Amino acid sequence: MGKKELSEKISKLAGEKNAAILAHNYQRPEIQQIADYLGDSLGLARQSSKLDTELIVFAGVDFMAETAALLNPGKKVVIPDLEAQCPMASQLPAKTVQKAKKEHPDAAVVLYVNTLAEARAEANVTCTSANSVQVVNALAEDVILFGPDSNLAWHVKQNTDKEIIPIPKNGHCYVHKMFSATDIELLIEDFPKAEVLVHPESDPEVQKLADYICSTSQMLRRAQESPADEFIIATEIGLVHRLNRELPNRKFIPALSDGICQQMKLHTLDKIYRALINEEPVVEVPSDIADRARAATERMFEVSKG
Ligand code: SF4
C-alpha cells in the first residue's frame, strides 16, 4: 500500500473511531501531514487536555504520551511504537530527584516535561523549552533544582537571578549535542543574512550564536513573523521539514542535516494504522504517580501563557 492510500485509510479509521492523532514536530513528514494536531511538547500537552475524542494515538516519545495519558484519565492513549523512548528522560530517575530534594530542602523542583511521569511526580511544577524561564521566574523560591537537561538549565540561568542546580549534572539530548558552534559559524559565513534559531537543548556555545533561542513552535512563529528570508535552524530535522512545507518561500538551512532523533522516527504510517486498529500498545501511568505528575503539569499551565 502506498503512503497516500495508507494515509487515507488512517484518516477514515480515525474518524470512525472518534480518535485523534497527535504528532510532535520531529515526526516523519508523512506523519506530520496526517496529524490532527502537530506541535511541540507544550502545545501537545495543552491540546491533549482539550480533546473530546475517546482514543488518542500519540506519535511522539514516551514522556509525551505519558503526559497525554495523565491529563486524560478516562481516555485510551496508544503509542504506535513502545520503543520510542527519549534517552534524556531516562537520565533522571525519581530516586535522583528524591535525593536532591533531601540535600536541598528549601529548593523548588522544576522538571522539564522531557522526564518520565515517575520523576515528574516529585516536581513542584513542570516546564517546557517554550516556558522554562517564565515558570522559574514565577516561583517564590530562590533556589531551583532543575532537570534533566543541563543545557536548558544553563539557558534558564541566563534569564533569572535564582540559583539553578541541574539534576543530574550533565543531563542532555544526544541530538542537540551534535550541533557544533564551528559548524554554525561556517553556515553564518555562507548565509550572513540568515537569522539563527537555536533550541535551548543545544550546548551553551551554540546558544551564544543564536539570534533567538526558542522551542520548535516558537521557531515556526518566528519564521512566520520575521522580515528575514533565510534561517539557520539548530534543532531536529523534522522541524525543518515542517518549516519547508508551511513556508515554501523562505529558505531553511539545517545546522546539521543528519540531526535526527532515532527514537522519534520509530513511528511509521503502518504502525499508526495498526495502533488504530488494535488500540494498543496502551500507555498507562499508575494513578498515584499520575495524580502528582498531573498537579505539577497543571501548575505549569497556570503560570505559563507561552
Ligand atoms: S530530540 Fe532529544 S529530547 Fe527530544 S525525544 Fe529525541 S532524544 Fe529526547
From TrEMBL:
For this protein, the record's Pfam families field holds: NadA
Catalysed reactions, semicolon-separated: iminosuccinate + dihydroxyacetone phosphate = quinolinate + phosphate + 2 H2O + H(+)
The residues that cross the membrane are none
Gene, per the UniProt record: nadA
User: InterPro entries in the record, alphabetically?
Assistant: NadA (IPR003473), NadA_sf (IPR036094), Quinolinate_synth_type2 (IPR023066)
How does the cofactor attach, per the note? Binds 1 [4Fe-4S] cluster per subunit.
Q: Extract one GO cellular component term from the record.
A: cytoplasm
According to its UniProt record, the EC number is 2.5.1.72
Query: What is its pathway?
Result: Cofactor biosynthesis; NAD(+) biosynthesis; quinolinate from iminoaspartate: step 1/1
**Name of this chain's protein:** Quinolinate synthase
**Role according to the record:** Catalyzes the condensation of iminoaspartate with dihydroxyacetone phosphate to form quinolinate.
Provide the GO biological process annotations: 'de novo' NAD+ biosynthetic process from L-aspartate
Any idea which positions bind iminosuccinate?
H24, S41, Y112, V113, N114, S129, H199, P200, E201, T216
**Main localisation:** cytoplasm
Q: Which cofactors are required for activity?
A: [4Fe-4S] cluster
Q: Which residues bind [4Fe-4S] cluster?
A: C86, C173, C261
Hey, which family's this protein in? Belongs to the quinolinate synthase family. Type 2 subfamily.
User: Which UniProt keywords are present, listed alphabetically?
Assistant: 4Fe-4S, Cytoplasm, Iron, Iron-sulfur, Metal-binding, Pyridine nucleotide biosynthesis, Transferase
One example GO MF annotation: 4 iron, 4 sulfur cluster binding
Q: Where in the cell is it found?
A: Cytoplasm
